[in-house]
TrEMBL record:
Gene: CBR4
Pfam family membership, one: adh_short_C2
A molecular function GO annotation: quinone binding
Annotated ranges, domain Ketoreductase: 22-211
Keywords (A to Z) from UniProt: NADP, Oxidoreductase
Protein family membership: Belongs to the short-chain dehydrogenases/reductases (SDR) family.
Domain of life: Eukaryota
Lineage start: Eukaryota, Fungi, Fungi incertae sedis, Mucoromycota, Mortierellomycotina
Protein name: Reductase
Length: 265
């Protein structure tokens, strides 16, 4: 009796969640900002699909980070696919497999790499990797999910850029190029998809405390904090909250939401 009450209660709570019966695709959902977003959207009822290159890490995220959110009674099964977003064929194969499961309602594209160097010393391979992962990956992923969203006349896409894409930075010319291009791309796509009730927005984070920024020396981190109005580095959850807001915003599209604690003011 008690267990059937608990089961009914958990189903009722789940159905009341704002993102119930939706699917959120999160390339880069295995770490940092993407992982925080995956957990937040899961807590709001969405089924999560993470993409990353590391199979062990995907397994860890599914079993240790996402499964505990709903407990063992849940009917929500989160998924993970090994997929290199710099490879168009890999993306198309993954989205084809995913479409057999369920259509994508939200794309939060957080997969990205940084390879910092002054341009004259920048290794060609690093330049290609940054552009193919950050920019081409974004383009292929948006293209792959857009068709399904257009057919269903619903969807929200959130691409992660950077304040460096707005302002530039020494040692980050190529990274900045990839992140600026995401903004122009997303604004254009928002115009193409708006009539189908699909929003496309961009988040431009400042410095966020993740694996990506872990190698920044302490004195540089202190200097960044000193220039940040809110007096701290950002946390992955700060960006996840912004992604959740944009996913649910019905009349905001083609915008860049800066999440940097005031760093770029
Ligand atoms: P992390 O390094 O913590 O995570 C990056 C994620 O991207 C990982 O899940 C990684 O998975 C995935 N990834 C990288 N390359 C590929 C690829 N080729 N194919 C599939 N997945 C890939 O970085 P953050 O969470 O900090 O960054 C997330 C996004 O936010 C990035 O686009 C970054 O440029 C942007 N950003 C970050 C800022 C920061 O200060 N941290 C500031 C501004 C923007 P795996 O390694 O398992 O494949």
């Amino acid at each position: 009796m008690l267990s059937s009450f608990r089961r009914a209660y958990s189903i009722a709570v789940h159905e009341a969640l704002p993102l119930s019966n939706t699917l959120t695709l999160i390339p880069g959902g295995t770490r940092g900002i993407g992982l925080a977003t995956a957990k937040l959207f899961a807590r709001h009822g969405s089924r999560i699909v993470v993409l990353g290159r590391d199979q062990e890490r995907i397994k860890h995220v599914l079993e240790k980070e996402l499964a505990p959110i709903h407990g063992s009674n849940s009917s929500v099964e989160h998924l993970g696919f090994q997929c290199d977003v710099s490879n168009q064929e890999d993306i198309e194969r993954t989205i084809k497999d995913l479409n057999q499961v369920a259509p994508v309602d939200y794309l939060v594209n957080s997969a990205g790499i940084a390879r910092d160097s002054l341009l004259i010393a920048h290794a060609s391979q690093d330049i290609e990797n940054v552009i193919s992962t950050n920019l081409m990956g974004t383009i292929w992923l948006n293209k792959a999910v857009a068709k399904g969203m257009m057919r269903r006349k619903r969807g929200a896409i959130i691409n992660i850029s950077s304040v460096v894409g707005l302002q530039g930075n020494i040692g980050q010319s190529v990274y900045s190029a990839s992140k600026s291009a995401i903004i122009g791309f997303s604004k254009s796509l928002s115009k193409e998809l708006g009539s189908r009730n699909i929003t496309v927005n961009v988040i431009a984070p400042g410095y966020i405390d993740t694996d990506m920024t872990s190698s920044i020396p302490e004195d540089r981190k202190k200097a960044i904090v000193a220039r940040t109005s809110l007096g701290r580095l950002g946390q992955a959850d700060d960006v996840a909250e912004a992604a959740l807001f944009l996913a649910q915003a019905k009349f905001i599209t083609g915008q860049v939401l800066v999440v940097d604690g005031g760093l770029s003011l």
